[in-house]
What does this fold into?
Amino acid sequence: MKITSRFTVAVHTLLAIYVLGKEYKMTSDFIASSVNVNPVVIRRTLSSLKAAGMIDVKAGSGGALPAKDVNDITLYDIYMAVDCVEGDLFNFHENPNPKCPVGKNIHAVLDSHLSDAQMALENELKGVTLADLMEQLNLLI
Amino acid sequence: MKITSRFTVAVHTLLAIYVLGKEYKMTSDFIASSVNVNPVVIRRTLSSLKAAGMIDVKAGSGGALPAKDVNDITLYDIYMAVDCVEGDLFNFHENPNPKCPVGKNIHAVLDSHLSDAQMALENELKGVTLADLMEQLNLLI
DNA sequence: TATAGTTGTAATCAAAATGATTACAACTAT
DNA sequence: ATAGTTGTAATCATTTTGATTACAACTATA
It folds into this structure.
């Protein structure tokens, strides 16, 4: 199974707000048409990003605004903000048989390696900031 | 979303076959009771592991047997054998709007970073062999 | 060679997660 | 007041997963 597109949607959303925010009013409808998903999906994304302190959104007046330094937002922060993975990335079969020497010890043998792999992925995400992405993007616009 | 437990089930299955295979006949029923899943789930796992050349299984007589050097099987090989992830680990929203400067370039900006993160995870899995796991396990049995 | 024990695989099924969508109350600037 | 938004609940269809049933095909051996 793959990691939910909520993540790339959230990155796209933040980039839009931080790059186009000075030029346009960033409503959920506007962002939705850039990302190409339903506006409600964007509103939910905005909720998460707001809860993480990355943007400000005001009900009523509308429009999302940057709320953090772009150097202080990493892909990992976004990934965490939208709950791509709750806790462990790898599912583990429930209740391996404790009466079997393998079943009894499978967690002891495997857990640390799975955790290492997950950390390797997350560390990579920690190494990329919104500033990095904006720099790349500005070269292309 | 998490990575399917097919992966940990497959690792468990291989460990059982390679560690207990000399002592017991490793039928799908036997393994299923160690892993604690339905025997058909194990048969499907065995199919995948057999296709990857890691075990031999004969229909009829029954019982799975080791078919590869334990130093030549990594967690990554197992992960690939059971198709935990087809291609990209991260889902990407379909059809970002090419008329928007962000939508038009989001893939150019994001793809390489996602790919790097996935590779970091997979490289970690490549660094662990079945031999490593068996060594750990034998200390605990 | 008949039989018991297996594997291989198709077909269903229920549960969970996802994203789409509708609906509407609540809010705010003008 | 009103028009335009956000926040959020409620549904829905789709997809994925793993469980399970069922049964044909296969193999060792008694």
